[in-house]
Amino acid sequence: MTKTLFEKIWDKHVIRTIDGGPSVLYIDKHFIHEVTSPQAFRGLEKRGQKVFRPKQIVATADHNVPTVDQHLPIKDELSRLQVQQLIENCRNNDIELYGLGHPFQGIVHVIGPELGITQPGMTIVCGDSHTSTHGAFGTIAFGIGTSEVEMVMGTQCLLQAKPKLMRINIEGTLNRGVLSKDIILYIISRISASGATGYFVEYAGSAIRGLSMEARMTICNMSIEMGAKGGMIAPDDITFAYLKGRPFAPQGEAWTKALAAWKELYSDPGAAFDMEIHIDAKDIEPMITYGTNPGMGIAVTGQIPSLQEVDDKERPSFEKSLQYMGLEPGSRMKGKKVDYVFIGSCTNSRIEDLRMVASFVKGKQKASDVEVWIVPGSKQVEKQATEEGIDKVFEAAGFHLRQPGCSACLGMNEDKIPAGKYCISTSNRNFEGRQGPNARTLLASPLTAALAAITGEVGDVREFI
């Protein structure tokens, strides 16, 4: 019987299926952070229940942490309380915590892969929607709510209905200046921010197979932004080479055994999907968003749709979005002035992203009226950037290399974009107030963001590389 990649992993993790209902799914790895875990721990305590398998949980502090002066007490009272509560909960339950000051601390979806904790064939959950990032390794990885965090803590299992399956095939060679962020923004703009609702997506095709692991993670990270339960890519030699030798990856005989199993993780020829989409890589250009959901994206050389191009039922929300963003229907984004540039988040804060930006801006100076924040995804990335002299390149360009954390991806910490200001961001969401009350977010790739940092406006990187 032919099976998809998803079905191969799902079937191995189903303990039993309730007639007419969900399945009891075993969870291999559970990541937690300071925001969605306190209530779950409290729920267990109220029932007098202990964490069932603490060794399968990994914790870090990322959402609410400051990205400057991390050695000092956290100023914000709520953030300080949440981080302290995480420390106490992990200590009381014998859970590994990579907290502030630890060499492995960082954004939860950055540290899992770089430490080799994330491995093909796993089921992975976290109380964070962008858990889909780990799907780049051929895993079933998805975000869960606080009550589900408690369920996994208490049982190492989760009640889940099997989703529908979609495959997005991207064939051909990418255009110059087009990155994985452009690929996923293009897909979302094409199928909408709800176009994959109810589906788990597998990305396939020659353009996907040619990507690095960092680039694949960017694509899987934003699967949730088109409504999908998660996204995944079949593991291959690029995956195996990335994992080999990482701190928590299998070693010696265990590696050989794991590798043999991982090589069976692919969708069989003829395996059935509920929906398939085919995209030609040459149709994808550098992208930029203009609205307040990730599906409102266009090529940087394109125009915002006119009112006549928008369906009648969509028009009120379209107009409301443009009013919030201070933009006009039918206008162009190229040349639009920006005030802030944020390069970071679990979407684009890995060493490959920082290397790419440093290579582009070396010898250049940022625009005098633009504030630039570069936030590495982990202490490991920060260490590599320092060892490679990337920090010096940024300093010379007038950029500010901060310390690891979710930072300006979301307005839960001190790194907020001021009201009314435009920020070109490598993060994953552009909702109203996402980066701070009344902040205006333009999502783009690290290269497009780097160009905006230098020129002070939205531009086409193909004119500069």
Explained architecture:
There is one protein chain. The protein contains 15 helices and 19 strands. It has helices spanning 5-13, 38-46, 77-93, 108-114, 146-155, 180-191, 206-209, 213-221, 237-243, 252-262, 315-325, 351-361, 379-387, 390-397, 446-455, and strands at residues 14-17, 23-26, 29-32, 57-60, 96-98, 123-126, 140-143, 157-160, 164-171, 199-204, 230-232, 275-280, 287-289, 297-299, 340-343, 371-374, 400-401, 422-425, 440-443. The chain has a five-stranded parallel β-sheet. Helix 2 (38-46) links the parallel strand 3 and strand 4 (57-60). It is globular, with a radius of gyration of 21 Å. The mean pLDDT is 97.
Give me a quick take on this structure.
The protein has 15 helices and 19 strands.
User: Beta-sheet strand percentage?
Assistant: 15-25%
Q: What is the H level of CATH, i.e. the homologous superfamily of the largest domain?
A: Aconitase, domain 3
In the predicted model, the low-confidence regions spanning at least 5 consecutive residues are none
Strand order of the largest sheet: 5-4-3-6-7
The CATH topology of the largest domain is given as Aconitase, domain 3
CATH class of the largest domain equals: Alpha Beta
Number of helices: 15
Oligomer: single chain
Summarize the amount of helix as a percent range. 25-40%
| Strand tally | 19
By helix and strand content, what is the structural category?
A: alpha/beta
| Global outline | globular
Head-to-tail CA distance between termini: 48 Å
Radius of gyration over all CA atoms, rounded = 21 Å
Give the total of domains.
2
How does the major sheet shape up? 5 strands, parallel
Mean pLDDT: 97
User: What is the CATH architecture annotation of the largest domain?
Assistant: 2-Layer Sandwich
